[in-house]
Amino acid sequence: MRFLAALFGRRARLRWLHLIIGGALLMPYFLVGTVLVGMAGGGEQLFSSLPAQFVAFGLALPMAAVTGFFALVRPLSVAAARALCGVPPAVLADGPARTRQARVRTAGWYTLHLALGGIISGATLALPPFAVAVIALPFFAGLRETWLLDGPEALREPWALALAPFAGLAMLLALALAAAVAGEVLARRAPVLLGPTPEDRLAAAERRAADLAVRNRLARELHDSVGHALSAVTLQAGAARRVLDRDPEFVREALTAIEETTRRTVGELDSVLGLLRQDGEPDEEGTAHGPGLDALGGLLAHCGVPVAYEREGDAEDPGVVDPVVAREAYRIVQEGLSNALRHGGGDAASPVRLLIAVRERERERERERERELMIVMENPLGERPAVARPGGGRGLRGIAERAVLLGGRAEAGPYDGVWRLTARLPLTTAEATGTADRAEGRR
């Protein structure tokens, strides 16, 4: 039963159909080859000459191979192989063949498909009628007289006629076996010839990396803006609830801070969601969205923790700090404040200290000096360890990612009894590109 299923089961029938399609695709090339053979031989007995047909078949295959170099042949072949050959879809490539290697492989597959399909299709058309006639020989006298009129005398013997039905069945079985073997050959070669090339895998990896970069950027924006706002609102609401009966003025200030924080966060959320409403085109890192350093005043005034803010240089001057750098700096400060709210021990006696300065530093292995934006934030360490949140712990990693993407660096950790966050960023995106290029050159 398993043998018969392998020859006549659903998968075998689909593969047989796939081979017949290959034979149909071969016909135009075969006809051109027939014309060429006829022109060379004078056209005498062209269709009755078996050698001439084989020569035409041999001429058709190179023409089919040339067609296989067209880019759109691969997606059509892949679609047919997935539907009819029983090949797992994941092992086949998607899209047109763009590279030379992909086109060579596609041409090889196309030629193999048409060659095997032509042979199996020809046998499918010619062999079954002949086999049925052989099976019917013992039962129809007129058929015997017509077929065996010029045949050898041995075929007229009773034992030969008795074996004729078995010979006919053997012919049909051999045809099914040949179709099954040809279909298996195509199915085994499909992942090699229609599968992704190294260039295809590299392009797919680049697309996945680009998608992940966009997702990570959106995750950072939402984490820093919404996460900070929720932390601030939660702490302010909790403090207001505890002193609701004793200090109404503090409650009014807390409610005002909650209102300002949520209003500002709604605007930031609209800016972040705007990245998703660009008709499928991902926003580039070089485009500034969201608040910059000039919006720090509103952030610090309603962040829920006292902040001692110091400035050095012209860090808030839009003409000095690139808007993209200013945006990332704002997010770094915002995340630092969120960490201070959740994990720190800040109060009026020991506020959070924030320093933003524009300073010069000497380039590594060079004598030139360049200016950079430095952010230093310190807050007291909490008396109790912070409670780990499910899915939390991404804030510091997000800060490091922001700094690295700009060509800077960031670090955070305990230092002299406080928690210190330090970030150094180039002032402009051009300097960021130069810093990244120099780092790549050193590697």
Please outline the helices and strands.
Blueprint: H1 2-8, H2 10-41, H3 50-67, H4 73-84, H5 100-136, H6 141-147, H7 158-193, H8 198-242, H9 248-274, H10 296-301, E1 307-312, H11 323-343, E2 352-362, E3 369-380, H12 395-405, E4 409-415, E5 418-426, H13 429-442
Parallel strand pairs: 1-2
Antiparallel strand pairs: 2-3, 3-5, 4-5
Helix pairs in contact: 1-2, 2-3, 2-4, 2-5, 2-7, 3-5, 5-7, 8-9, 8-11, 11-12
Structure description:
The chain has 443 residues and is of the alpha+beta class. It folds into two domains: 195 residues, no CATH class; 241 residues, Histidine kinase-like ATPase, C-terminal domain (Heat Shock Protein 90, 2-Layer Sandwich). It is built from 13 helices and five strands. The chain has a five-stranded mixed sheet. A hairpin with a 2-residue loop joins strand 4 and strand 5. The longest helix has 45 residues. The radius of gyration is 39 Å and the shape is elongated. The two termini are 63 Å apart. The C terminus is likely disordered. GO terms for molecular function: ATP binding; phosphorelay sensor kinase activity; protein dimerization activity. Its EC number is 2.7.13.3. This is histidine kinase. It catalyses: ATP + protein L-histidine = ADP + protein N-phospho-L-histidine. Pfam families: HisKA_3.
